[in-house]
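[job 0412] stage=fold_complex status=start
inputs:
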Amino acid sequence: MPDSAVHIDLPGWAEELAAPGAVFPDAEARMRLAILLAHTNTAHGGGPFGAAVLERASGRLIAVGVNRVLAANASIAHAEVVALTRAQQRLGTFDLGEGGRECELVTSAEPCVQCFGALFWAGIRGLVCGARSADAEAAGFDEGPKPAAWADLLSARGIEVTRDVLRAEAAQVIADYAASGGPIYNPGGGPA
Amino acid sequence: MPDSAVHIDLPGWAEELAAPGAVFPDAEARMRLAILLAHTNTAHGGGPFGAAVLERASGRLIAVGVNRVLAANASIAHAEVVALTRAQQRLGTFDLGEGGRECELVTSAEPCVQCFGALFWAGIRGLVCGARSADAEAAGFDEGPKPAAWADLLSARGIEVTRDVLRAEAAQVIADYAASGGPIYNPGGGPA
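[job 0412] stage=fold_complex status=done
writing structure:
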């Protein structure tokens, strides 16, 4: 890469698991993909989080993402941000809603304060979540000062939020990761 | 770039304006750099926002960033995120505070809801702002549902916030951009 750039690779296995263009017909099928991405990421040394951007109506996959914070040396590289940005760059627009396109982000865990903020400008119309923030916090992850009414704030901006899709399965990936001693990074370092 | 990746280039002129390693001794000198980056970005068709990551004590520059949303097809590519991620990748760590290092982010305008959220995980110890969010909003930019107590929430996590450094000069860059008809993108599209 040129020295003067930001670069976040996706591991090769990510799009082998699910190629862009594949169709995931319903919320559970889409969440199974996000959970599989999360689980496979932990098997390769990454964090227990996966996400995907799909066309809402058709279920056609646009892009996947996994947590790449450690691998890419980038605190921004949560699964949600990787999937959203990869989808935007694949479609050649910063706005996934361009021309009336309706996309959703399916994520194995509810967004932290960073990803919550990133959702507003991505142009998605839906957010589908598996594990709750409380499940990530139970494993030691810090979700940050996300507003209590975060889902309502997204809805008010035209982003429909669906929670608890296969929550138990999604939470298990996070719990297994923590139990196996995976790093629970928190670069904030200030008083939690 | 490999197909399966996220990539955000910095324009070549950005590090010609200020090379990593250069020293900016005080808050005003650092803010002048952020404002110069913002102004120069508009001259090249980008948004009116610039940022830099520096070592707090020495003022040694680690990385600069400018808004690359349109150029990179990436809604995440606000100046703050570009500067923080570039600094992390240059230092080879997702945590700018690693080993007790104390860095600050100097930004020509207060963070929007997205960049506010991104600050918590970057490992910075200080945030220095020029223009207020109200100045960006006056030009038509949408800052999103950032908590009213955003600066306190950052302070509570060990990130010291300094506001209104050369505010008038920083706000002028944004106002000039809007007056010249620069695009005020807002992919959210929902009810504002």
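[job 0412] summary: Chain B touches chain A through 64 residues (CB under 8 Å).
[job 0412] exit 0
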